[in-house]
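Researcher: Let's do a round of design. I'm pasting the structure tokens now; please hold your answer until I've finished.
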């Protein structure tokens, strides 16, 4: 029941938001907060169930081969936890900025949350596509929500590329059904082993390409920098911190179940894509003058690290990929929230204009410095630990070049984050007689946003030393083992 509620509660909230608006003409912050708390609690309950007692919910009692199955295990639980934390943080930032006014925004938010939980829990390939379509439509509209020309252009690009990605996922689903006659993932794990290799290659190419577009990996990343940089701050944080991770989960689940023992070329392709994403994302970020575009291109590079871990096709690589995905959620959400608030305060997103912030906002700059050091990979922060585990997994899988790419990416990322921090620390030149004064901005209350950023920065410090704990290593090792244990997944769903 908890698996169903994780999907139904946010979808019900999305349905109730416009009804409350019609009845009362306004929405209170408390009402949205209650809906958000209920939705996040439902997701956490499903994560708890999947972690301690992996479960399958067969809707209406239909058998897996003809009905809809929801599956909760340790891999889905880890991503449900990420979604709950990241979505809660984004909702809190949105409530602090917008209040209860823009009801359409909150309706889209809950619609997106329900569809994300659906992707994380579905055990059916076609329903994965259906939830993706709901998820994508809500994301397109949230990107364009501010209605500025930059946001509308970004939303259109996201729509076009997202539709292409969805088309490949649908083609892969159709080919799969034509070849096997089933859509349940557990049953497909058995059925795909017996189909012709050419058919399997076509299926894997469509599914991997479609999901890669959805993750925003290089070189099909064109939608991501515009979408992440042009959206509202809360949406930018949500896109980079949470939405990308849902696509990472889908890629992991599909590839490990379908191709782990049948098509090893898939994981080599994922590793190559990941390596190009690391280098391409970092090199493009190095050229940016807009701080939010810099962070967006950094996301492309961080996706590459995760893909390299997935491409190792091992439990260690999967565990390292999940660890880095969780770390990236903390680091990048904190960075986007900080960059968004500080750029609004200064009236510019150009890095050269973000001077004097150390003097006026020392706590914000300090948090940004911790998060930047973590995402660069400075020991003993969490970003270093997860990158180190990915390097070890890559070397253990016999692919040394991706490990060298990760090391090179660390050096490049240090260069552009130091440039940002240097601007923050530099004296504000706006007071010079030869230059116009800085655009005055009315101070805003940002206590909630800073509490989130500060908490995430503190977690980066804590998670940097947690891997030395045997219990912590055991937990993440169990996630990796769950990801690659196809027989256990099949047995859980079929009851064999």
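Researcher: That's everything. Go ahead.
Model: Designed sequence:
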């Amino acid at each position: 029941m908890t698996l169903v509620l994780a999907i139904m509660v946010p979808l019900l909230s999305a349905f109730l938001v416009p009804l409350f608006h019609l009845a009362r003409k306004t929405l209170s912050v408390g009402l949205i907060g209650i809906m958000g708390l209920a939705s996040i609690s439902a997701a956490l309950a499903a994560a708890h169930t999947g972690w301690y007692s992996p479960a399958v919910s067969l809707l209406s009692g239909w058998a897996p081969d003809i009905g809809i199955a929801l599956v909760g295990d340790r891999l889905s639980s880890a991503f449900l936890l990420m979604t709950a934390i990241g979505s809660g943080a984004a909702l809190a930032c949105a409530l602090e900025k917008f209040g209860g006014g823009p009801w359409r925004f909150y309706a889209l938010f809950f619609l997106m949350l329900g569809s994300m939980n659906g992707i994380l829990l579905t055990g059916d390939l076609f329903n994965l596509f259906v939830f993706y379509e709901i998820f994508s439509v809500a994301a397109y509209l949230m990107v364009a929500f501010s209605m500025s020309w930059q946001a509308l252009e970004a939303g259109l690009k996201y729509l076009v590329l997202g539709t292409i990605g969805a088309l490949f996922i649908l083609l892969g689903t159709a080919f799969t059904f034509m070849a096997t006659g089933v859509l349940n993932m557990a049953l497909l794990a058995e059925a795909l082993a017996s189909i012709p290799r050419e058919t399997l290659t076509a299926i894997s190419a469509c599914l991997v390409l479609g999901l890669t577009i959805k993750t925003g990996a290089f070189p099909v990343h064109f939608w991501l920098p515009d979408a992440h940089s042009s959206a509202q701050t809360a949406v930018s944080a949500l896109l980079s911190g949470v939405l990308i991770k849902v696509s990472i989960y889908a890629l992991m689940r599909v590839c490990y179940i379908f191709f782990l023992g049948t098509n090893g070329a898939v994981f080599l392709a994922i590793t190559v894509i990941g390596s190009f994403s690391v280098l391409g994302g970092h090199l493009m970020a190095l050229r940016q003058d807009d701080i939010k575009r810099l962070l967006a291109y950094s996301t492309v590079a961080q996706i590459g690290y995760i893909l390299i871990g997935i491409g190792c096709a091992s439990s260690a690589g999967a565990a390292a990929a999940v660890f880095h995905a969780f770390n990236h959620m903390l680091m990048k959400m904190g960075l986007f929230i900080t960059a968004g608030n500080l750029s609004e305060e200064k009236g510019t997103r150009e890095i050269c204009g973000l001077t004097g912030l150390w003097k006026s906002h020392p706590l914000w700059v300090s948090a940004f410095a911790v998060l930047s050091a973590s995402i660069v990979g400075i020991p003993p922060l969490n970003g270093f630990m997860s990158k180190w585990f990915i390097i070890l997994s890559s070397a253990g899988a016999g692919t040394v070049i991706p490990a060298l790419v990760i090391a090179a990416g660390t050096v490049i990322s240090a260069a552009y984050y130091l440039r940002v921090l240097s601007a923050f620390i530099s004296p504000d030149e706006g007071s010079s007689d030869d230059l116009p004064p800085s655009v005055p901005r009315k101070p805003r209350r940002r206590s909630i946003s800073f509490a989130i950023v500060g908490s995430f920065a503190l977690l980066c410090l804590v998670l940097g030393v947690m891997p030395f704990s045997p219990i912590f290593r055991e937990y993440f090792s169990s996630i990796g083992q769950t990801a690659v244990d196809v027989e256990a997944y099949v047995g859980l769903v079929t009851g064999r």
